[in-house]
Write a structure and sequence with these properties.
alpha/beta; Rossmann fold; globular
C-alpha cells in the first residue's frame, strides 16, 4: 500500500451521516461540492460509499432492493458531500412511487447548484438495462458531468465484464457528452477504489 493511497484512505475515512431527505427542497445548503451516487436498486451504491470511506456502517446496506427511497447525505472530512440518491428500476414499486422517486432524482440533479459530478453505477455482471439507457439519455442533457462505475466486478468473469464494458463504451459514444470515463470497482476486493478516490478528490483540490 502506497503512502498516497494511505493518505486518501485517511481523508475519506473522516466521514459521517448528515441526514435523509424525502423532498429536494428540504436539503440544507452546506456550501460544499457534492458528488452523487445514482443507479438501479441493489446495484451497490451503499456498499461503494462504505468502501470509499472505509466505514462499513456509514451507509445502510440491504439485500432487499428498493430500500433507499430518500436522498441521503454524508459529509467527507467536512470538505465534500456524498449524496446517495434513491435507486430506480425496482419492478415491485407502484407506478406512483416510481414517479415520485424519478421526480426526486431529476429535481436534485437539475436544481442542486452544489452538485459537481454524478456517479452512475451499473452492475458489471448484469450490464445495462432499460432504466440505465434512459438515465444516460437524461444525464447527457444536463450540465453536470457524469462517469460510469461498474460495480461487483469480483462476481463476474473477465469475459462478461469486457463485454459489458465495451457495450457501455459504444453506447456512450453516441452521448452528447464529449468525454466520458468508466471505472471498474469491487467493494469486496477493493479493486478500482483508489482510482475512484483520486477522481473525487480532484474536486477538493480544484477548490470548487
Amino acid at each position: 500500500m502506497t503512502k498516497g493511497y494511505k493518505s486518501l484512505n485517511s481523508f475519506f475515512s473522516k466521514s459521517n451521516f448528515i441526514g435523509s431527505y424525502i423532498d429536494f427542497q428540504q436539503i440544507p445548503n452546506f456550501n460544499l461540492p457534492e458528488i452523487c451516487f445514482l443507479g438501479r436498486s441493489n446495484v451497490g451504491k451503499s456498499s461503494l460509499i462504505n468502501q470509499l470511506t472505509k466505514n462499513k456502517k456509514l451507509a445502510k446496506t440491504s439485500k432487499t432492493p428498493g430500500r433507499t427511497q430518500s436522498i441521503n447525505l454524508f459529509s467527507i472530512n467536512d470538505k465534500i458531500m456524498f449524496v446517495d440518491l434513491p435507486g430506480y428500476g425496482f419492478a415491485k414499486f407502484s407506478e406512483n412511487l416510481k414517479n415520485q422517486l424519478y421526480k426526486s432524482i431529476e429535481e436534485y440533479i437539475n436544481k442542486r447548484s452544489e452538485l459537481k459530478q454524478i456517479l452512475l453505477l451499473i452492475d458489471g455482471k448484469v450490464g445495462m438495462k432499460q432504466g440505465d439507457f434512459e438515465t444516460i439519455s437524461f444525464l447527457s442533457q444536463v450540465d453536470v458531468p457524469f462517469i460510469i462505475i461498474l460495480t461487483k466486478i469480483d462476481k463476474c468473469s473477465r469475459k462478461i465484464l469486457d463485454e459489458n464494458y465495451n457495450k457501455i463504451s459504444e453506447h456512450l459514444k453516441n452521448s452528447s457528452k464529449k468525454t466520458f470515463e468508466i471505472y471498474a470497482t469491487s467493494s469486496s476486493s477493493n479493486e478500482g477504489i483508489a482510482e475512484l478516490q483520486k477522481n473525487i478528490y480532484k474536486f477538493i483540490k480544484n477548490d470548487f
